[in-house]
Amino acid sequence: MECKYHPKEPASWNCNRCEVAYCIECIPASQHMPKCPLCRSYLQTLGISRSIVPFWNRLSMFFTFPLAIPLLMIMIFSSLILPLILPSSGTPIVSVAILIIWMSFVIRLCFSIMEYLAQGHHEAMDFSKLLSFSNGWVFLKLVAIGLVLGFVTIKVMNFSFALGMILVIFFVLAYPAMNIVLCTDKSILSAINPLRLIFVMSVMGKGYWILFALTLVFSMTITFTQELAFENLPRHLSLSVAHLAYLYFNFALYAMIGYAIYQYHHELGFSVFRDTLHQNVAASRASVASGNSKNASKSSQEGDGAYLKEARIYIQEGRYQEAQDTLIDALKVNEQDNEIYEMLYRLFELRGNSDWLAKLTEKHLTILHQTKQRNLMRMVFLNTSRLIPDYQPKDPKVIHSLIIVLNRKDDVAHSYRLFKYLKQKHMDYPDLADICFIVGKLFTEKLNRREDASKIIRWGINLASGELKESMQSYLKLLNS
After folding, report:
1. Is residue 167 pLDDT above 90, yes or no?
2. SS3 38
């Protein structure tokens, strides 16, 4: 689905009421829960992958990734050493052993690159990340997969050549999927499970076949470069060039596969680093709007709390329960952050959860009352009353503050409703007489209902004392004059 207003851009949000799709350029970054610009109803997410620059548009990034200093040094060192390790004739055991160890190290580098980009990192890897064994020896499962597939294929071909060829073709087509599954599941059985591989291929859709085609191009380029080197260069130099090409294109290939996992992580059920994801999406948004992704990423990083970044991404992925859990946990850390409340209000409204909305409003109004943010109290109460017409705060002190701030003509009905609730439930509230006086004056000054105002004030005089009682009696005489 493409954006209605930017036809070349994939849509990230859709309005079910207007049947209009929007891209990230159409929706302001400040909107936690975007609304349709036409009808103001909440938009439905179409998935986070549509807000991530597709891997087929980032090819230059993959070709330059192996040129970062750490990887470049490894490629040069390996290409210079390899001709010295391999003997000109024969296969000494020591040389073979060293070669196996070195190629295992290269496979681990490829796996590390894939994992690194799968988490959403775009910057170059340093030596500590390249050489880290945080995932143990998972990379050796890449080797094990090859051995298992070779053994199974031989056995099947002995039984039926046609069936064996079908199996070979399937696993060739599923090669990128096997790497993806190994990266996400860390399991050999999953990586060779046809059902799991077909699932990956199906959820990625055309993106998978683009990835497969590019993987095939990379592999053919390696083979062509190696053949060209062996035919036209001296032995030592040809070995160096062939190995350099092997490393370069494999590093680039696994960077591309890792990025593809990152792009389709939600569809694949894979968790990425939420902060990195939010920064990348913000950078992508800014890149579309102004071409300045660096500043946008920095602004996003400085301006938002980590929990808000995480919740925004969950919301755009349509994972509302996880967004809700994240924000509720954040409130336990900082119960005075109004932005957290705002996002939770939108979530509860979107999900139609009136009970949670009422509880959240009660908690928020109490905090706002304690911090004397009365204008914000008014806005919160009116918004909740719009969604829950019979909503009633429980704390009489909160109600008192609300009646004071609900002093506009359109607010009088709410003030009166709160006043009646207070009379019914909290007759012992010490400032009830003052509330009667406030509501009575609102009836007079905002609605010009002097008779109703007189009744309210006359009732309140029975509870008042001292200066307040005198003021109420004077005002009552003025009303009756």
Report:
1. no
2. coil
Structural domain includes residue 251: yes
> Which of these, 416, 445, 419, lies nearest to 433 by C-alpha position?
419
Residue 175 CA to residue 194 CA, distance in Å, equals 11
Q: What is the DSSP letter of 54?
A: P
Residues 28 and 3 in one domain: yes
Q: Compute the distance between CA of residue 312 and CA of residue 332 in angstroms, rounded to an integer.
A: 18
CA distance 256 to 276: 17
User: Residue 121, SS3?
Assistant: coil
The token pair at 232 is 């036209």
C-alpha distances out from residue 379 to 33, 52, 264, Å:
18, 35, 39
Q: Which two tokens stand for residue 100?
A: 């196996």
How high is the mean pLDDT of the chain? 82
Number of domains making up the chain: 2
Please determine, for residue 81, whether its predicted confidence score (pLDDT) is greater than 90. no
Contacts of 468 (CB under 8 A, 6+ apart): 433, 434, 437
Judge if 205 and 165 occupy the same domain: yes
Give residue 35's domain range: 1-46
169, 149 in Cβ contact below 8 A?
Answer: no
For residues 8 and 157, state if they share a domain.
no
d(CA 418, CA 398): 10
> At residue 228, what are phi and psi to the nearest 5 degrees?
-65, -40
Q: 34-42 contacts: CB < 8 A, separation 24 or more?
A: 39/15, 41/15, 41/16, 41/17, 42/346, 42/349, 42/350
Q: Which of 193, 188, 187 is nearest to 174 (CA)?
A: 193
pLDDT per position as a tens digit, 169-218: 888 899 899 899 988 888 878 888 889 999 999 999 999 999 999 999 99
Give CA–CA dist 10/24, Å, rounded.
9
- Please give the model's pTM, rounded to 2 decimal places: 0.57
* d(C-alpha 413, C-alpha 410), whole Å: 7
Check residue 11 and report its DSSP letter: P
Contact 138, 111 (CB under 8 A): yes
The answer on 206 and 160 residing in a single domain is yes
